[in-house]
Amino acid sequence: MEAIAILKTLNLTKKYSGFSTKGYYAVDNISFEINRGEVFGFLGRNGAGKTTTIKMICGLLIPTSGKAYINNIETINPLSRKKLGYLPEQPYFYEYLTPRETIDFYCKLKGINSRERKQEWLRLSELLDLKVIGDIRLKNFSKGMRQKIGFAIALVGNPDFLILDEPMSGLDPVGRKHIRELIHQQKELGKTIFFSSHVLSDVEQLCDRVGILSKGKLIAIGHIQEILQQDIQQVEVIIKDLDISQTASLQQKGILIRKWANYVHFRFENILTANQAVAECLQKGATVIEVTPQKETLEDYFMRMQIVEDNQRKKDDIYYSRVEE
Ligand SMILES: Nc1ncnc2c1ncn2[C@@H]1O[C@H](COP(=O)(O)OP(=O)(O)O)[C@@H](O)[C@H]1O
Ligand SMILES: [Mg+2]
User: Fold this and answer.
1) How far is the CA of 242 from the centre of ligand 2 (A)?
2) Which fold has domain 1-82+203-227?
3) CATH number of 234-294
4) What are the pLDDT digits (tens) for 43-83?
5) What is the pTM of this model?
6) C-alpha–C-alpha distance, residues 26 and 46, integer Å
């Protein structure tokens, strides 16, 4: 796929002023690009600055400094939003409208004519499976259903770039799965999707690349596999029908974790030892059921970053307390 940037941010910064402090940076000098056709996950803990970044990209907040561009048009220019679909973190709905009327309303806002508005309802109600609830007022809907309507609103006019702020947040597992499927479906249709999340597993499953935001700073960006420590840390192996003497021999190489029925579960310190052990088992006629390398997950990454951050803070505290003395 051609790597053409659909979104570009250049030293994007938002500073908020506080009464008692000199102000602080909610978004601090971030620069990155998203390519056409990508699913990009924007990760960070609560308060990291995800929504502030998204609002600047959508033209809802003016940056303190720096710039953002969609399709090379600066986001302070409304034309940049012509092909943009946006799902806010807390979407607002007109409770007395039905999904059909809601879509019609947003179509009107986009200047879509009456015949095409009907077409748009047909397209979206099919795509998001909204037909049977088309004429029920929104006030009756669950959180999951509302999020689906929010998604449908973002898709009005068939934009080629979607920005979704925490689209899975607050949903139950079934609701999350629905939204994941919708994002996947949009990717298959060739759309570019930029979504924020603090839920790591959603991002791991969906994204081509991720950016990780911490206290307003972009601390990592790239393919998930590049960001995570790639060294295989340990290898878990499950073997069936291994005889007792062979089991004893493997205990020289690795740790026996569990034994049940005619299965044994071993852990080896590295891939080489695991390979030797597997070869030995196969030679003796045992069956290898599972070989699982243990790699770092995004969860581990966040914990690792948290430890780095805590240590830095401790160092800073020591430094500042020395200065005060
Ligand atoms: N209007 C505002 N005025 C002052 N501070 C704000 C405002 N909006 C957000 N913040 C602060 O900016 C930081 C980043 O917020 P936000 O972008 O909402 O983070 P996230 O979406 O990653 O949870 C937080 O510390 C938040 O309290
Ligand atoms: Mg947010």
Assistant:
1) 52
2) Rossmann fold (3.40.50)
3) 3.30.70
4) 988 899 999 999 999 999 999 999 999 999 999 999 999 99
5) 0.82
6) 12
